[in-house]
Amino acid sequence: MSHRCATCGEIHVEPPDLNFRWPDPYSAVPEGERAKRVKGNSDTCVIDGGYYVRGTILIPITGTTGHLGIGIWASQSAEDFLKYLDNFDSPKIGPFFGLLSNNVPFYKPGTLALKVTVHFQEKNMRPLISPEPSDHALRADYTSGITLDRAWEIAHAR
Predict the structure, then answer these.
(1) Looking at the domain assignment, is residue 8 inside a domain?
(2) Is residue 10 part of a domain?
(3) What is the pLDDT along the chain (158 residues), one digit of tens a residue?
(4) Is the model's pTM score more than 0.85?
(5) In the chain, how many domains are there?
(6) Distance CA 147, CA 65 (A)
């Protein structure tokens, strides 16, 4: 389905998924210390004893079958993190509680430390992350959806 973007005026098919390369605590580690204090890849990360997994929040786009995906990091307890590493490709673990570990700039107030549930999947797919019930705008968008125009506004704001 094509759509003329109200933000840029271009014709788009669907909004791109957005993602964060690292959890926010990564940027607090001086570059010269990262090799010693950060161990991670595109799916898991340990920073100074903090444990993180990368997953996806899927925000429905109203009036369509599509969604806006946000690739984001969530903290995990050491026990849950190790269980995930041992059962990487299994939906039979969890779900596990976590805190969002990225501040999504187009949500006010910020999303850092927002309570979430991490749902593990199989077939080499990243976990799905769902915001816990709250009055935060991200939770409202997750449960009620956003318009296609809003999805493109968010995509252009990154």
Answers:
(1) no
(2) no
(3) 566 666 667 776 677 788 999 999 999 999 999 999 999 999 999 999 999 999 999 999 999 888 999 999 999 999 999 999 999 888 899 999 999 999 998 898 999 999 999 999 998 899 999 999 999 999 999 999 999 888 888 877 76
(4) yes
(5) 1
(6) 12
